[in-house]
């Protein structure tokens, strides 16, 4: 086998990590590490959390150089042109969750070992998507008249759905504020849209004010098509990451189950699933106020790196410092766990793979998990990794996974 490029080496390293590499692949990787100075050190860094941090830093550099407000205007101003796919190519590469960990590894091998990258980095992802069947109902757009549109089944380069535009192969929603009629008239009832992601779904959209939102699986976001002069208010069930366009005169408000988060312009994450005992609001940049809907006097102000947690049963609001990489992991296409209880872990897996876990163990609290995994991994490979690191045994039968103590 000849000298491999970074993409091929990255795949073998990932297989080694999840113990799925063949004997031939193991020999190839061993030969690669011996053939270059410092490659063993590179391998050690790749399998540590440092790779995730560096990937986020690289992505932040890219995002910082991209004017998304201008990008939105460019998209909406060139709907009739057929070269849209070329103009969006550089952001679509970063846009989704597929093969995120592979990208991390590939960047490390390229940066520190000098291995050649594939001629077209986008091929790492596009080829994979084209080989998978399109599922019509993982992402649903509900229009103001109640019409439901399956977003994953749209193939067109661009498609106008009333006041929204579905853009490119990534099928992002972009709302055009310039086409709003009566948006400034507070006497008119605003048109409300809703995006719903089911098991394994992931979606991103740009609201009419330029705010960017990423929606995790099994989540719902309800929002007006156009914002008037007052507050910009949306409702969330599930999990979403927000990058809010600053507007001092119009605060942005997110209502999520029992808490309300109020911002002017910042980036933050909210996790508010109905089957979880806690609701979390985590601040990345700027400043936000978080308060229980039932008692606004218990408001807390968050600084970057802080997380507000609302205990649904105890009716208690608390603040703590958190690892932002772990909070962000889902948006980058990863599961990331830090001494998480098995029930917390399996609830996340259920939302992505569409399975149900049945416990047949003596004590669920004895099992906790560390590490991170790509959402592009098979369910079986992740469960095997849990077992190999001292976890329980898993037996899958259809859409049910039985959890038992090891013999």
What structural keywords apply?
407 residues, alpha+beta, Jelly Rolls, Phage tail protein beta-alpha-beta fold, 3 domains, 3-stranded mixed sheet
Topology:
Blueprint: H1 6-17, H2 23-35, H3 39-46, H4 50-64, H5 68-77, H6 84-87, H7 89-92, H8 100-113, H9 123-130, E1 139-142, E2 148-150, E3 158-161, E4 164-167, E5 172-175, E6 192-197, E7 203-206, E8 212-215, E9 219-224, E10 232-243, E11 252-256, E12 259-263, E13 267-272, E14 278-285, E15 288-292, E16 300-302, E17 306-311, E18 316-321, H10 324-328, E19 334-341, H11 342-353, E20 356-360, E21 368-374, H12 379-388, E22 393-397, E23 400-404
Helix pairs in contact: 1-2, 1-8, 3-8, 4-8
How many helices? The count is 12
Q: Percent helix among the residues?
A: 25-40%
Runs with pLDDT <50, length 5+? 78-101, 117-135, 180-187
By oligomeric state, this entry counts as single chain
Number of strands: 23
Provide the CATH top-level class of the largest domain.
Answer: Mainly Beta
Helix- and strand-based class?
alpha+beta
CATH architecture of the largest domain: Sandwich
Outline, from the CA principal axes? Answer: globular
What fold name stands as the CATH topology of the largest domain? Jelly Rolls
Radius of gyration equals: 22 Å
Q: How would you state the average pLDDT, rounded?
A: 75
The number of domains is: 3
Rounded to the nearest angstrom, the distance between the terminal CA atoms is 42 Å
β-sheet strand percentage: 25-35%
For the biggest sheet, the summary is: 18 strands, mixed
């Amino acid at each position: 086998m000849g000298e491999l490029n970074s993409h091929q080496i990255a795949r073998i390293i990932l297989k080694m990590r999840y113990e799925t590499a063949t004997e031939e692949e193991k020999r190839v990787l061993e030969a690669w590490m011996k053939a270059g100075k410092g490659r063993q050190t590179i391998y050690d860094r790749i399998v540590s959390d440092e790779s995730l941090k560096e990937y986020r830093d690289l992505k932040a550099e890219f995002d910082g150089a991209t004017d998304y407000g201008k990008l939105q205007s460019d998209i909406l101003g060139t709907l009739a042109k057929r070269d849209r796919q070329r103009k969006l190519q550089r952001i679509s590469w970063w846009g989704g969750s597929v093969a995120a960990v592979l990208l991390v590894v590939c960047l490390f091998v390229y940066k520190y070992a000098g291995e050649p990258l594939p001629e077209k980095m986008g091929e790492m992802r596009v080829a994979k998507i084209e080989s998978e069947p399109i599922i019509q109902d993982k992402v649903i757009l509900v229009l103001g008249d109640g019409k439901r549109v399956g977003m994953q089944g749209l193939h067109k380069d661009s498609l106008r759905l009333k006041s929204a535009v579905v853009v490119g192969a990534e099928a992002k929603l972009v709302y055009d504020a310039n086409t709003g009629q009566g948006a400034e008239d507070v006497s008119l009832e605003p048109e409300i849209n809703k995006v719903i992601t089911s098991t394994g779904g992931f979606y991103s959209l740009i609201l009419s004010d330029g705010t960017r939102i990423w929606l995790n699986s099994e989540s719902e976001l309800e929002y007006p098509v156009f914002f008037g002069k007052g507050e910009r208010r949306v409702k969330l069930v599930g999990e979403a990451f927000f990058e809010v366009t600053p507007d001092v005169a119009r605060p942005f408000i997110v209502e999520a189950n029992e808490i309300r988060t109020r911002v002017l312009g910042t980036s933050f994450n909210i996790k508010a699933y109905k089957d979880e005992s806690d609701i979390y609001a985590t601040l990345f940049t700027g400043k936000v106020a978080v308060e229980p809907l039932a008692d606004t006097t218990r408001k807390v102000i968050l600084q970057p790196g802080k997380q507000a947690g609302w205990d649904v049963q105890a009716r208690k609001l608390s603040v703590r410092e958190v690892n932002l990489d772990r909070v962000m992991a889902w948006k980058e296409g990863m599961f990331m766990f830090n001494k998480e209880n098995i029930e917390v872990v399996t609830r996340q897996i259920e939302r992505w793979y569409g399975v149900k876990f049945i416990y047949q163990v003596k004590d669920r609290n004895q099992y906790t998990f560390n590490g991170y995994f790509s959402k592009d991994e098979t369910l079986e490979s992740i469960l095997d990794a849990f077992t190999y690191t001292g976890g329980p045994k898993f037996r899958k039968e259809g859409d049910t996974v039985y959890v038992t103590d090891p013999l």
